[in-house]
Amino acid sequence: MNTEKKILVIGAGITGLATAHWLNKDGYNVTIVEAKSKVGGSMVTEKEDGYLIDFGPNSGLETSPLIKILVEDLNLKQQFIYGNKEGNKRYILKNDELQALPMNPKDFLSTKLFSTKAKLRLALEPFVGKSEDGYYQSISEFVTRRLGREFLDYAINPFVAGVYAGNPDKLSVKSAFPKLYRLEELYGGLIKGTIKGARERKKSGEKSKQDAAMFSFVDGMVTLPNAIHSEFGGKVLLNSSVTSVDKRNDKFEITYNKNGTEAKLEADLVISTAPSYKASKIFSNFDSELTNHLSKIYYPPVMVLYLGYDKKDIGQPLDGFGFLIPSKEKKNFLGALWSSVIFDNRAPEGKAAFTLFIGGTRSPELFSDDNNKLIDDVVKEFESLMHITGKHEFIKSNFWNKAIPQYNIGYVEHENYFKQFEEKNPGIILGGNYVGGISVGDCIKSSEILFEKAKKLLL
Questions:
Q1: Which backbone phi and psi does 323 adopt, to 5 degrees?
Q2: Level-2 CATH architecture, domain 2-39+64-77+219-298+407-457
Q3: pLDDT, mean of residues 319-348
Q4: pTM for the complete prediction?
Q5: 1 has a pLDDT exceeding 60
Q6: Residue 420 CA: distances (Å) to CA of 58, 97, 122
Q7: Residue 9 bridge partners (DSSP)
Q8: Which of 123, 131, 256, 388 has the smallest CB count inside 10 Å?
Q9: Which CATH architecture is the domain 114-204 placed in?
Q10: Contact 285/278 with Cβ under 8 angstroms?
């Protein structure tokens, strides 16, 4: 057992909880401090009127063997479910019509989503050279250079909106899409890299996000953080907002506010998985330059709108994952998931459930003190695109004022400084979805890295 040293994890999102789980499994003495009244961070699941709503991540991709290990550790195998095959099909909106995203060469040749010119341009990709400065290159520049403008507009632009709620002109290809960047750096191109990289993944047991199976839980994504919470019990301090961390001799003193009362904890090692804008204040006593880097990371606002309809009123065949909207289509929302198609148990019998996303970096100006008109406009657009004749029978929304960290151009400077800070301040480890990726799979993989760092420091 490794109970002599005390470890404090700040933040009970999935990164912090998974990190704590690995440490606890290895016998370490871990306490988790969370500002909110519930664990899970952005994993928020609600049930109402027979609908199951995930207001944060609606699913994960099984990109790493770690996910199955975590599920088995927590005895969640009976809850763990894969997405329905009907959800494999993706649509992109073009000229107010939903076009299926081609998933194989045959479909690519026949699709109306791309012109003949764009298809021929893709064939030139293996002959395009490497960039000179990938660290300061946007995903827009990268894709336009390698694949052409049309592919950017009707594949990557909507994809970036769906993943980051972001702007491809601002996101760094190196930081936001490191695996894509690596294909060019290591193999010289995307097509060559995809073929050769598949061999590497087969050896490691990992899968690309394109090939990985989609998963969730019978009772929604919050099942995962709740299960980790259960194994810790009273060692998760909820409603406890950390205000500062200080070094006292060879220990860390953590000050936090619990229901209006100030309290303190002592730890040998601190792992912060709080959002960067919160971490910037927590560690301000250590390093003003760290505060500067953390506070510069942008989190755009996003509204999640959940709608329920009677299936008989829906004209669009429900045979896919949903659709994404390129910015050129000029709509008030980014896209829609067909939630009840992807997973069972998301809507009552005979009903269909949809999750829409509004705002993001593309249009943060949409929001006001009263968003009722915006919601009405989005519902009208959605119903028109889906050929819905009846009125929705269920509607609920959730507003994330700071939703997803944007790995914008120059993000490598933040990443490098975080490493420098940890080297100068042994015993403090920085993590969360602003380090190592934003997806559920990325966060779980990052948790193992944090766990290994902690073990090394505690030797």
A1: -145, 155
A2: 3-Layer(bba) Sandwich (3.50)
A3: 97
A4: 0.93
A5: no
A6: 35, 49, 40
A7: 32, 271
A8: 123
A9: Orthogonal Bundle (1.10)
A10: no
